Amino acid sequence: MNERSRALTALANERWRISFWLTSAMLTIYFGFILLIAYNKPLLGYLIAPGLSLGILLGALVIVAAWVLIYIYIRWANTYYDKQLAKIRGDEQ
Q1: For the chain, how many structural domains are there in total?
Q2: At a CB cut-off of 8 Å and minimum separation 6, what does 80 contact?
Q3: What pLDDT, on a 0 to 100 scale, did the predictor assign at position 91?
Protein backbone atom coordinates (compact mmCIF):
# COMPACT_ATOMS: atom_id res chain seq x y z
CA MET A 1 0.00 0.00 0.00
CA ASN A 2 1.43 3.36 -0.96
CA GLU A 3 1.56 6.48 1.20
CA ARG A 4 -1.47 8.06 -0.45
CA SER A 5 -3.63 5.00 0.24
CA ARG A 6 -2.50 4.91 3.88
CA ALA A 7 -3.30 8.59 4.34
CA LEU A 8 -6.72 8.13 2.75
CA THR A 9 -7.46 5.10 4.94
CA ALA A 10 -6.41 7.02 8.07
CA LEU A 11 -8.63 9.95 7.07
CA ALA A 12 -11.58 7.63 6.43
CA ASN A 13 -11.04 5.99 9.83
CA GLU A 14 -11.02 9.40 11.49
CA ARG A 15 -14.26 10.33 9.74
CA TRP A 16 -15.88 7.12 10.98
CA ARG A 17 -14.64 7.80 14.51
CA ILE A 18 -16.14 11.31 14.53
CA SER A 19 -19.38 9.98 13.05
CA PHE A 20 -19.54 7.22 15.66
CA TRP A 21 -19.15 9.61 18.61
CA LEU A 22 -21.65 12.13 17.27
CA THR A 23 -24.16 9.38 16.50
CA SER A 24 -23.65 7.91 19.96
CA ALA A 25 -24.27 11.31 21.52
CA MET A 26 -27.50 11.77 19.55
CA LEU A 27 -28.76 8.28 20.41
CA THR A 28 -27.98 8.84 24.09
CA ILE A 29 -29.86 12.14 24.13
CA TYR A 30 -32.84 10.75 22.21
CA PHE A 31 -33.22 7.47 24.09
CA GLY A 32 -32.62 9.25 27.40
CA PHE A 33 -35.58 11.48 26.58
CA ILE A 34 -37.70 8.50 25.51
CA LEU A 35 -36.83 6.61 28.72
CA LEU A 36 -37.73 9.68 30.73
CA ILE A 37 -41.10 9.74 29.00
CA ALA A 38 -41.60 6.04 29.74
CA TYR A 39 -40.55 6.02 33.38
CA ASN A 40 -41.10 9.51 34.80
CA LYS A 41 -44.13 11.15 33.22
CA PRO A 42 -44.99 13.25 36.30
CA LEU A 43 -41.60 14.97 36.10
CA LEU A 44 -42.21 15.89 32.46
CA GLY A 45 -45.60 17.31 33.37
CA TYR A 46 -44.04 19.83 35.75
CA LEU A 47 -44.95 23.35 34.61
CA ILE A 48 -42.02 25.71 34.20
CA ALA A 49 -44.19 28.57 32.99
CA PRO A 50 -47.86 28.77 32.06
CA GLY A 51 -48.24 26.60 28.97
CA LEU A 52 -44.65 25.30 29.09
CA SER A 53 -43.95 21.96 30.72
CA LEU A 54 -40.58 20.38 31.30
CA GLY A 55 -41.44 17.71 28.72
CA ILE A 56 -42.02 20.26 25.97
CA LEU A 57 -38.81 22.07 26.86
CA LEU A 58 -36.75 18.86 26.86
CA GLY A 59 -38.33 17.77 23.56
CA ALA A 60 -37.29 21.07 21.99
CA LEU A 61 -33.79 20.67 23.45
CA VAL A 62 -33.50 17.23 21.80
CA ILE A 63 -34.14 18.92 18.45
CA VAL A 64 -31.66 21.70 19.24
CA ALA A 65 -29.08 19.08 20.27
CA ALA A 66 -29.50 17.39 16.88
CA TRP A 67 -28.83 20.73 15.15
CA VAL A 68 -25.76 21.35 17.31
CA LEU A 69 -24.33 17.90 16.57
CA ILE A 70 -24.94 18.41 12.85
CA TYR A 71 -23.19 21.78 13.06
CA ILE A 72 -20.22 20.17 14.82
CA TYR A 73 -19.88 17.57 12.06
CA ILE A 74 -20.24 20.11 9.26
CA ARG A 75 -17.72 22.42 10.89
CA TRP A 76 -15.25 19.55 11.34
CA ALA A 77 -15.76 18.38 7.76
CA ASN A 78 -15.28 21.85 6.29
CA THR A 79 -12.28 22.85 8.38
CA TYR A 80 -10.39 19.58 8.65
CA TYR A 81 -11.69 16.73 6.49
CA ASP A 82 -12.01 18.61 3.20
CA LYS A 83 -8.57 20.20 3.58
CA GLN A 84 -6.92 16.87 4.36
CA LEU A 85 -8.68 15.21 1.44
CA ALA A 86 -7.53 17.97 -0.92
CA LYS A 87 -3.99 17.59 0.41
CA ILE A 88 -4.07 13.83 -0.23
CA ARG A 89 -5.38 14.37 -3.74
CA GLY A 90 -2.64 16.88 -4.39
CA ASP A 91 -5.03 19.76 -5.06
CA GLU A 92 -3.53 21.90 -2.33
CA GLN A 93 0.05 22.49 -1.31
Answers
A1: 1
A2: none
A3: 67
